[in-house]
Amino acid sequence: MRALHSDPRRITLKHLRSGLVIGTALTAMIALTSCASNEAPASGGSGSAGASGGAAITGTLNGVGSSAQSNAQTAWTKGFQETNTGATINYDPAGSGAGREAFISGGADFAGSDSALKSEELSGSFGACDGKGIDIPVYVSPIALVYNLDGVDTLNLDASTLAKIFSGKITKWNDSAITALNPDAKLPSSTITPVYRSDSSGTTTNFTDYLHTAAPSDWSNEPGDAFPYKTGEGAAKGSGIVAAVTAGAGSIGYVDNSSAGDLSVAGVQVGSDYVKPSAEVASAAAEAAEVDTTREDNDTVVTIDRKPTEATQYPITLVSYLITCQTYKDSAKGTEVAAYAKYITSTEGQQAAADSAKSAPLTGTIASAAQAAAATIK
Questions:
Q1: Would you say residue 53 has pLDDT above 60?
Q2: For residue 122, how many other CB atoms are within 10 A of its CB?
């Protein structure tokens, strides 16, 4: 999804009028590992019944999608089930593309996706919906550039150099383009192994959108869930990227910041500065994002500025979505999904994700839009 700053149909989130309707149906989202999701929930917590203002929810919700959301989904599942002890949430972090496919076919009650529903997907039918699916922003997080390079504790990169590394045009760590950005680093002459997502991934969409927007002459490929090159090593899911970089000396990959762990993380050039991922700079990027006003009511899709000039923003920030039906064929299922969506978008739910996944809680207009959308699910 590319930012179109000159498009009059798009407006900046921080300047949205309070009366603008931007609802989006949020789905029942919860991320547990498949085994953890069925554990008996702890009692006595404050959960989503309080957020939704209704009676405790019972029943089972099945979600599939974004591996970037995995840690947040675990936190949301725990918080929701603490209050709704009769509810079971299952979330399979199979990837954004797999999540959208499962939801569209009716094989999942909701999807988590780091890229919004595409026009061709919206033109078809949705198995569980009486109508179309909608996107609700629920998770804001920076994408970290993780690397494994012995003796190099600080690494700075710009969009052009990253595009050349991940397309295979730069193959050595002591390439002149890298040394120019890191004059004080002792860069080896060893080979670079770029690690990319081999599965259909919304994280890839966000990363390639950054490369295409910020360095178009070096990355001509349009953004997409499928990584366009086979240079280096492919790995499935964010956990696969982390494992490959951890095991591979001289490797570099891109992963949601919640999964970076103890790996070294590169800084990204913004203006004359270099910015590392954090909740603060991701939050600033989300607040400056634009909303696509060409979407249907309650289908809230935003685009991040990939070329900010102020180091207060991080250009490789992803806004990840809960994809649900606006109206479910099964009204009981709609009630369950709505309750979970209200919890996820609540202040409590957003803080739970921030504590667990280092994400940026939704704030301001984007938070209001997400909460309004969640309230319309039925």
A1: no
A2: 17
| Tokens of residue 344, six digits | 């996820």
pTM comes to 0.84
- How far, in Å, CA of 249 to CA of 139, rounded? 31
Predicted confidence (pLDDT) at residue 336 exceeds the cutoff of 80: yes
What is the arithmetic mean of pLDDT over 180-199? 97
Q: How far apart are CA 166 and CA 252, in angstroms?
A: 9
Angle at 162 between CA 161 and CA 164, to 5 degrees: 65
Return the bridge partners of 110, or none: 63
Mean per-residue pLDDT, 15-27: 35
Please report, for the chain, the start and end positions of each structural domain, with discontinuous segments joined by +: 10-141+289-302+319-374, 143-280
CATH topology of domain 143-280: D-Maltodextrin-Binding Protein; domain 2 (3.40.190)
Listed in sequence order, the residues at least 6 apart from 368 whose beta carbon sits closer than 8 Å to its beta carbon are 18
* CATH architecture assignment, domain 10-141+289-302+319-374: 3-Layer(aba) Sandwich (3.40)
Cβ atoms of 252 and 195 within 8 Å: the answer is yes
What pLDDT digit, counting tens, does each position of 289-301 carry? Answer: 988 899 998 999 9
